[in-house]
Amino acid sequence: MISELTEITEGAEVNSFRGWIFYDEDCGFCRNLVLRLERVFAKRGFYFEPLQRQWVRDRLDLTPPQALEEMRVLTADAQVCGGTDAVIFLARQLWWAAPFAALARFAFIHVLVDRLYRWVAAQRRCAPKLGGTCFRTSHSARNALPRRMGHAEARRSEYGWFALLLLPLLGLSTKPFLPAWGFMWAMAFAIFFACKWLTLGIALRRSKSASPFRALAYLVAWPGMDAKRFLSRDPAPRVPISTMLKTAVVAIARILVGISLLFAIARRVHDPILAGWIGMVGMILLLHFGLFSLLSAGWRTVRIDAAPIMDAPLRSTSVAEFWGRRWNGAFNDLALGLVFRPMARRVGATTATVAAFAVSGLIHEMVISLPAGAGFGLPTGYFLLQGLAILAQRKWAVLRGDISGWLFTMIIVAAPASWLFHPPFVRRVIIPFMQAIGAL
Predict the structure, then answer these.
(1) What are phi and psi of 221, to 5 degrees?
(2) What pLDDT is stored for residue 208 in this prediction?
(3) Using the 8-state DSSP alphabet, how is residue 126 labeled?
(4) Of 83, 273, 300, 406, which is the most buried if we count CB atoms within 10 A?
(5) Is 194:219 a contact under the CB 8 Å cutoff?
(6) For residues 124 and 337, which has the higher predicted lDDT (pLDDT)?
């Protein structure tokens, strides 16, 4: 053991040796991370060693099972940290991760990071030879994995769920350094691209025929979340040129109206809350009904299945139709695929409906209430009300008529909209953003 330590230390002195990073060499996920990060940390004086080495266990005074419970860092001055604390310590060594490490000093963030670490540790899949502790499932479940998917597909799935947790945390780490409106966009993009990466990974796992160009286009050039349809090699139904031209003209008209509301009309209004609402309506027309509609038309012109994000939401005669088919189809695809359908198979449609809207509320809290620093609970209350309204329409036929259903839907969706985009959000986030872009 002494000769091994001497060899490692002498080789490290050239790079100002600062410590070891111990990992589970029987875990493919861990080995891949080591291959990616070995040079990065070597430049900073840290070197990777497997936890399975006898000298490592002796130095840390751990039994073999204890050694594999979590990763550990041993510094040159004999300080030891493990698990979440080790991750945070290593993050401090990287300039781009230092803000995350600083944010983790807050107790509630530390708890969140610790849960993330434990979740990732539970999802890793080890090499079978030692029955590694990092994937804690039954032997039969481990053996069933290769029959369901290959190792590459399994890694894609793992990384997709990891991105869904990591990217929002990275977005959260920007809060101390950005204005409220900048933090709003950082969180929105972090959640958006995390969901894109996850849905792309799921689609690629199920279909190996997607082209790299189509996958890249799905990530950066299409806001929808139905990766399976977008990546399909089967041509989408041909749409007449006249229909595409009409769609483009209408989309351009909406863009112009949105620009007018945002940059011309809002500044003429003296009430800041009203001005903020006019600006938000302008942004929705500009993006969701305008630019995204043009993108849909462009992709469908080349026969890629990219249905419009918005589909005449004012025609909805039920709350379920509004949220399930006509408003923001991207989020609907996500909620259906990742929340509603898996839960409905286990607990039934009623509970799954409420759960899907609760998740939607929590996501909006991160993009709306968190940047505003106030109004917590209002967006969640708004979406829970939508879920309960869907259940009410299913139960009472009087709420499902063409006229009564439409009136009920418009009231439920529009009347409590100030819960969703509450006054603190408008004052502290939207108004400063509009001022920053010259709209006010």
Answers:
(1) -130, 20
(2) 61
(3) B
(4) 300
(5) no
(6) 337
The residue written with tokens 């751990």 in the block is 62
pLDDT at position 128 over 80:
no
- The rounded distance, in Å, linking the Cα atoms of 389 and 205 is 36
C-alpha to C-alpha distance for 309 and 357, rounded to whole angstroms: 19
Quote the pLDDT of residue 15.
59
Q: Give the SS3 label for residue 146.
A: helix
Q: What residues does 80 pair with on adjacent strands?
A: 74
Q: Decide if 86 contacts 46 (C-beta within 8 A).
A: no
Hey, is 136 helix, strand or coil?
coil
321: Cα within 13 Å, side-chain hemisphere: 18
What pLDDT is attached to residue 132?
Answer: 40
SS3 336: helix
| Alpha-carbon dihedral sign for residues 14, 15, 19, 20 | negative
Determine the Cα–Cα distance for residues 252 and 311; give it in Å rounded to an integer. Answer: 16
Q: Is 200 in contact with 217 (CB distance < 8 Å)?
A: no
Nearest to 343 by CA among 366, 359, 325: 359
CA distance 157 to 366: 24
pLDDT in tens, 47-101: 999 998 989 888 888 888 888 888 899 998 889 998 888 888 988 887 666 666 7
- Tokens 């800041």 belong to 272
Strand order in 19-23's β-sheet?
A: 46-50, 19-23, 72-75, 80-82
Provide the token pair at 369. 């209430």
Quick one: DSSP state of residue 238? P
What does pTM read for this prediction? Answer: 0.65
State the virtual CA torsion across 187, 189, 195, 197 in degrees, nearest 10.
-130
What's the whole-number mean pLDDT along residues 12-17? 60
